[in-house]
């Protein structure tokens, strides 16, 4: 789609990114991103998912482009556009809030109430070389509205599995919202999450992008899903939680 300097990839990297494909058609390609892989940029000197998209470059030098991002330690569904018209269409759909993103997360105690909306302004802060978001008064300079919905899918003495849906797209939004209601995500060092659960160390931020429903550039709507990876499933099961919940509507 855009002409850039190609990135040289190893055979193993090409095989890995191709193995993460969960949906592919003429307009879009969706991946189940592993935790620990940056979507774009970042300070770590390693290839990002954006770099790895060169594995899908066409002979004319154009390649897919990511249309949204996930935090490095968040696993799950992420999508790229394969053509310039698809990228434009999906960019407008994102601006119009027409994408429905559903996440799964682990917390150390069940939220009270069991479901609800979090609707608060957030402002970005730079502390050293790190960027943070914090809840702020509505008239704080730079504050932007943010809204998420949460619902408890399963709970035990060790914690809870929650479903999260963001309605806006602020940086770290779900993480900050859950911390705001006193239920930071397990493994979320930045926002006060517990580093252990059920006597086990949290291997990472326990947040997984489980599904993405979107209007398709060729018409209609599509939904792509990604099963929670092994580290998420193992910790959920150790906490006495079913990592494949059906939940209630």
Dominant shape:
globular
Please state the structural category: alpha+beta
CATH-defined topology of the largest domain: Pseudouridine synthase
Span of the ends, CA to CA = 40 Å
Let me know the largest β-sheet: 11 strands, mixed
Multimerization state: single chain
Q: Helical stretch count?
A: 5
Low-pLDDT segments? none
Radius of gyration: 18 Å
The strand count comes to: 13
Q: What is the CATH class name of the largest domain?
A: Alpha Beta
* Portion in helices: 10-25%
CATH architecture of the largest domain: 2-Layer Sandwich
Average pLDDT, rounded to a whole number, is 93
H/E element order:
HEEHEEHEEEEEHEEEEH
The total domain count is 2
CATH superfamily of the largest domain: Pseudouridine synthase
Strand content: 25-35%
């Amino acid at each position: 789609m855009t002409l850039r300097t190609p990135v040289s990839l190893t055979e193993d990297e090409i095989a890995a990114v191709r193995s993460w494909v969960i949906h592919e058609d003429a307009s879009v390609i969706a991946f189940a991103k592993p935790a620990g892989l940056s979507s774009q940029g970042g300070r770590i000197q390693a290839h990002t998912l954006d770099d790895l998209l060169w594995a899908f470059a066409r002979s004319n030098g154009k390649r897919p482009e990511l249309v949204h991002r996930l935090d490095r330690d968040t696993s799950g569904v992420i999508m790229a556009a394969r053509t310039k018209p698809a990228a434009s269409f999906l960019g407008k759909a994102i601006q119009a809030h027409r994408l429905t993103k559903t996440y799964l997360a682990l917390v150390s105690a069940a939220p009270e109430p069991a479901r609800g909306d979090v609707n608060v302004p957030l402002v970005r802060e730079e502390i050293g070389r790190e960027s943070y978001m914090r809840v702020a008064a509505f008239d704080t300079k730079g504050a932007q509205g943010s809204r998420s919905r949460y619902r408890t899918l399963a709970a035990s003495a060790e914690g809870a599995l929650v479903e999260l849906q963001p309605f806006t797209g602020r940086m770290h939004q779900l993480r900050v919202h859950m911390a705001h209601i006193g239920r930071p995500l397990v493994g979320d060092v930045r926002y006060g999450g517990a580093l252990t659960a059920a006597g086990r160390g949290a291997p990472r931020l326990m947040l997984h992008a489980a599904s993405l429903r979107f209007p398709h550039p060729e018409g209609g709507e599509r939904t792509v899903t990604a099963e929670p990876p092994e580290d998420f499933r193992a910790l959920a099961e150790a906490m006495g939680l079913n990592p494949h919940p059906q939940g209630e509507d």
